[in-house]
Specification:
This protein has 492 residues and is mostly beta strands. The chain contains six helices and 33 strands. Bound molecules: 2-acetamido-2-deoxy-beta-D-glucopyranose (NAG) (4 copies).
């Protein structure tokens, strides 16, 4: 009797321990894509398309609350930067719009302002900059509260649409770029305050059609990927320091059903940022050209591509990204995850003259914006990605879409997350996350100029227009550079 009772108690204890891994899981929400709109003026077979508001499309948000009483803000989740900031009172400009709400430090009982005017960050998005004050306050995500976290509220912001939750390495904090010392950021404090065991998180962006994905701090979920989870070392910058989520990308192939064509050479090896804060993926120009030719993509002078949705959304098509060399891992990213629908300003689908729907290609040539190679959300929707800041490793596996089950594994210090040895075949150096490329002119990409004027109400200034041949006899694409989406990784 006693034995049995003990067994029951033990089982209960055991199952409660299993049911409660030390993890923090939150939903990430993708903005509805109906905001990606185009103004179409059409005469005969010639059309001009002006895309607007596309900047909001495809961003992944989390809800967090700051301070006491809690003030809710929505932040964009960003693996490409390491600071958390939100809009403060009066910080909006026309190019920022303060989506996601504001935080007012005077309303928080728990705030301590620790650095007035000391916060300054620029992102890869052309013309972006944020200035503000550093604070200590509490931040609540999902079911936990992190006390005494260093964050910032903006006093001025430009060309950034929402506050940002950067979850990268402390070495990449904006203050370090300005010569300061890193502070313990959210990943550090989640561990220090015993809410998770290790500085790790798993990102599951899910399907383009799904509104929600998840981020799981301190664990991974076996129900959300298939095949082996394999591990790559994160690659350093030229000074040997690891600051960004950079891996060695070593091949690209196009698969159409049973037919796979590799479009990279055997020696191809590039440093690629796995950046959740970038809506598009930026790839070398020659690879972009191959894809453009293959899928009848119409491009404008800035490298924006448009194609028939039907062509891109073929379920047999994948872009196969290989990492770590010949014996490395491959993610077969479905082509449809790179197909971003475009509506006209009245909310009707934008169509070519032959009646096929227009989709924007979720790839851009890297040189167009002078930015590093980025595997952004369009790629990340094809993978389950475990970021391990403690071991400076990234593990990836093929994603399972719309998983309903959950099989969460807590990551402890001793864990080797991936299957098999770490893939160390190929090393690369990240050289491109610093200042924009020489000669790079933010003004050449449209409305967000580097002028020092405070009020940048120049939404339509200097917009380049391109006439490009395509399914329409001619389609002119005008707009602002940001219609390519945001590129949120910290510039130094
Ligand atoms: C938070 O919720 C997760 C389940 O999502 C649970 O495993 C974890 O123990 C919870 N943490 C705390 C501090 O309650
Ligand atoms: C965030 O909060 C808003 C408003 O309460 C809600 O509609 C939305 O679903 C929430 N999103 C997430 C990711 O929790
Ligand atoms: C397209 O834009 C060009 C340049 O702005 C203009 O000259 C042309 O008339 C426009 N075409 C249509 C069909 O609106
Ligand atoms: C918060 O951190 C500061 C310095 O980092 C420290 O002086 C203070 O005691 C901390 N407060 C709490 C409540 O932990």
């Amino acid at each position: 009797m006693l034995t049995m009772k003990t067994a029951v108690v033990l089982t209960a204890l055991l199952s409660s321990a299993l049911a409660d891994p030390k993890v923090v899981q939150m939903e990430v929400e993708r903005r509805p894509s109906t905001q990606r709109m185009a103004q179409l003026s059409k005469r005969d077979d010639v059309a001009n398309v002006t895309l607007s508001n596309a900047i909001f499309d495809g961003l992944y948000f989390v809800n967090v609350t700051i301070g006491r009483p809690p003030q809710m803000v929505q932040l964009q989740l960003d693996t490409g930067s390491s600071d958390i900031w939100f809009f403060g009172p009066g910080s909006c400009s026309s190019s920022s719009q303060c989506r996601g709400g504001e935080y007012d430090p005077s309303e928080s009982d728990t705030v301590e302002i620790i650095g007035r005017g000391d916060f300054f960050i620029r992102y890869g998005t052309p013309g972006s900059r944020v200035e503000g004050d550093y604070i200590l306050d509490s931040l609540s995500i999902a079911n936990v509260t992190v006390q005494n976290l260093t964050m910032a509220y903006a006093t001025r912001a430009r060309a950034v649409t929402t506050g940002i939750m950067g979850i990268g390495f402390p070495e990449n904090e904006a203050i370090v770029a300005l010569g300061g010392d890193p502070y313990p950021n959210i990943m550090d404090l989640l561990v220090e305050q015993d809410l998770i065991n290790t500085r790790t998180y798993s990102l599951y962006l899910n399907d383009l059609d799904s509104k929600y994905g998840t981020i799981l701090f301190g664990g991974y979920d076996r129900a959300r990927f298939t095949g082996p989870l394999r591990t790559l070392p994160i690659q350093p910058e030229s000074d040997g320091v690891i600051r960004s989520m950079t891996v060695a990308w070593t091949s690209l192939a196009i698969t159409d059903g049973d037919d796979t064509t590799r479009i990279t050479s055997g020696s191809f090896a590039e440093a690629a940022l796995l950046d959740s804060g970038s809506t598009m993926s930026l790839i070398p120009d020659e690879l972009f050209e191959e894809i453009v030719d293959r899928f009848d993509v119409i491009t404008d002078s800035q490298g924006l591509g448009f194609a028939s949705c039907e062509t891109l959304e073929d379920d047999d098509l994948t872009l196969d990204f290989g990492f770590g060399g010949e014996d490395g891992l491959t993610i077969r990213a479905p082509m449809r995850q790179f197909s971003l629908p475009v509506w006209d300003i009245t909310g009707d689908p934008l169509e070519f003259t032959n009646g096929e729907r227009v989709c924007q290609l979720g790839l851009m040539p890297q040189s167009a914006l002078g930015l590093p190679i980025i595997l952004g959300d369009t790629f990340l929707r094809g993978a389950y990605v475990v970021y391990d800041l403690d071991n400076q490793q990234i593990s990836m596996a093929q994603i399972v879409y719309n998983a309903v089950d959950s099989d969460i594994v807590e990551i402890t210090e001793e864990d080797n997350i991936g299957e098999g040895p770490v893939i160390t075949g190929v090393s690369v150096t990240q050289t491109a996350t610093g200042a924009p490329a020489p000669g790079y002119e933010p003004t050449s990409t449209g409305s967000v100029s580097e002028s020092e004027s405070d009020d940048d109400d120049d939404e339509d200034a200097g917009i380049p227009s391109a006439q490009v041949p395509g399914l329409l006899k001619s389609i002119g694409v005008t707009g602002i550079s940001m219609l390519a989406g945001m590129a949120l990784f910290a510039l130094r």
